[in-house]
Amino acid sequence: MSAAEEVVTEAPAVEAVPKRAMTLGYGTSLAVLAALILIPLFVKNFIIFQMTMLLIYGLAVLALNILTGGSGQFSLGQSAFYAVGAYTSAILMEHAGMNYALTLPIAGLICFGFGFLFGQPALRLSGVYLALATFALATAMPQLLKLGYFEHWTGGVQGLVVTKPDAPFGLPMGQDMWLYYFTLAVSIAIYVASVNLLRSRSGRAFMAIRDNEIAASAMGVDVALYKTLAFGVSAGITGVAGGLGAIAVQFVAPDGYTITLAISLFLGMVVGGVGWLPGSIVGSAFIIFVPNIAESISKGLSGAVFGVLLFLVIFLVPHGARQVAIVAQQLIAKLKKN
Amino acid sequence: MPTPNRRRIATALLGLAVAAATGSSASAQKKYDTGASDTEIKIGNIVPYSGPASAYGVVGKAMAAVFRKVNDEGGINGRKINFISYDDAYSPPKAVEQARKLVESDEVLLLFGTLGTASNTAIQKYLNAKKVPQLFVATGATKWNDPKTFPWTMGWLPSYQSESRIYAKYLLKEKPAAKVAVLYQNDDMGKDYLKGLEDGFASDPARIVGKESYEVAEPTIDSHVVRLKSANPDVIIFFTTPKFGAQAIKKLGEMSWKPVTIVSNVSASTATVMRPAGLDNAQGVISAAYAKDASDPQWKDDAGMKAFDELLAKYMPDTNRVDSSAMTGYNMATTMVEVLRRCGDDLTRANVMKQAASLKQFAQGGLLPGVTLSTGPSDFQPIEQLQLMQFKGERWQLFGDVISAEIVGN
Known about the structure:
The structure holds two protein chains of two kinds. By secondary structure, chain A is mainly alpha-helical. Chain A has 14 helices and two strands. By secondary structure, chain B is of the alpha/beta class. Chain B folds into two domains: 2-158 and 295-379, Response regulator (Rossmann fold), CATH 3.40.50; 160-289 and 388-404, Rossmann fold, CATH 3.40.50. Helices cover 42% and strands 17% of the residues of chain B. In chain B, helix 9 (242-254) links the parallel strand 8 and strand 9. The A-B interface holds A 44-47, 49-50, 53, 143, 146, 148, 156-159, 161, 245, 249-251, 253, 255-256, 258, 260-261, 288, 291, 295, 299-300, 302-303 and B 49-52, 57, 85-87, 89-93, 96-97, 100-101, 103-105, 117-118, 121-122, 124-126, 186-188, 217.
């Protein structure tokens, strides 16, 4: 990274990312897409399931990336939105008998509303205080889900078991593969929408707020509206991811949506590169696969090994996958010149 | 070691008897499903080694120690056990991922001793659809005994409902006129306990004069205890987790109120409940147990306890032996080894379930004398007996006979 960025003058919590640097080039995008479409045809169902979870967590990390990388607001409460999305889908599928695909937009809308409302009081807070407020939300959520009043719908501590959908129209593919492609389609749609959102007027407003709130409001950006809007959009996408997660895992229970999940998503965002949307999937891979690697190194010390690996990543590539991508790009450019 | 030897001979004889009964043609043929071969049996396991419930990781370590010992002694019917144990950090989505990894990637014969009610619920449907045995799950919920809906899932621990039915049985017999008040935790565990008690008092529901529930989030349960006292019961029962059990017993002492007091087995630990509550307050409290307590001096020369201690000394020397999780893992793995031994050369998933469902009063060194495992095609709840115990001096003393909570036709 350039030296100019390292100059500290009341540094904003999140460094400015130019909007062109937020996405991948066309060629790389197509290569990644081709890999995501083709790989499942050649691997076991278990790997397909892991790839589905990769996309789902990738979506949740992307949502956080829009909030933090886009509008500069912190959140440690994404697990709460994820839980609301998951429960919305599960309850609609199991109690109302609704089609799984229809439950996702509803989960998204409910979470959008929830996030938008939560964004209102959050307006008064910034930086670490906002992080703490959202942290409170994340710790409260598992207990709220256990409350007796909702138990009829949520199943209380026992949770709800969800039925996995079959491939429609008699397509010759297994449940896992169908769910994967379904998730992939949803993910691509949300990714493209997110990229366009950040390139649009609203996206520019987000980034103006992130870079300097006072300057943004002087330029006529409605700071309050756009900050809550960023919260709403982020919560909505997280809700869709939660709904997909409930369908893929076939089970929702309060224990699945603890603060650990929120921290994992935060971790994924940092490892993937704050503000770099394609990094979301790299961050997602980190939070899914690195704990497994740590466990295979040492069962008793898996947490410590994970910590060491995380430390190495932060130390060697502090800007996450984005930094790796930029270095790779420069190398390729150099090779082309020679 | 006289007991294990005798058991081995007994098993061999049983094997012969089975072979004779079923005809030699079937038993001479080796049959395998995925995960079993002439040299190896692959067993999958999921235990929280990290995360909020990582204290239970000892269960998995004790299981691994038992299988290592069996392998060092030549394995089961000549086959080594390959015990693959993964961490789910007590998170249901992670448990699903690990279960699928075990079944589809590691290709295990069965899953054994998976821990946690939520994690097991999350993988139950998947394993039953795949027809992979989910044997001896490490949770006390009652729902694992449902062979009609889930023919591939079997519990192991005495269920919370069995335990509270035993308290009801005891009270009906010893205190026939006593009025009972109950304090329970408002979750699946507390409700399971309450249901068992109510079933036990089905003939006379008016005996339960007070019911109070508390949330885990409450800082103290003193007010609930005071409210229960106003119902003027003769017996008070605490279906609580350890922290609240200690609070409740202490509160009774402070109020100088001495009803007959019963605490659930979950809250019967000397170290984490009785001592913090104050030994004076804890005198005379009643609870129930099914396994031997490694901290109890009466088992010092017991053969079963010696075998347990030898295992710990050789295979997991850094474990705290009074940690009851070690005993739980040891006992469960012992049952698993026995079932695999009985399978002989027919290591199909169907036969594993069949053998697991035909345990008849099988005794183990780590269980209390008289507590045995029994299963059948419609009974997937191996342990249903407990023995009552009373706190005297500084430790629990067992009393009375082993009581069974099996309800015929349930």
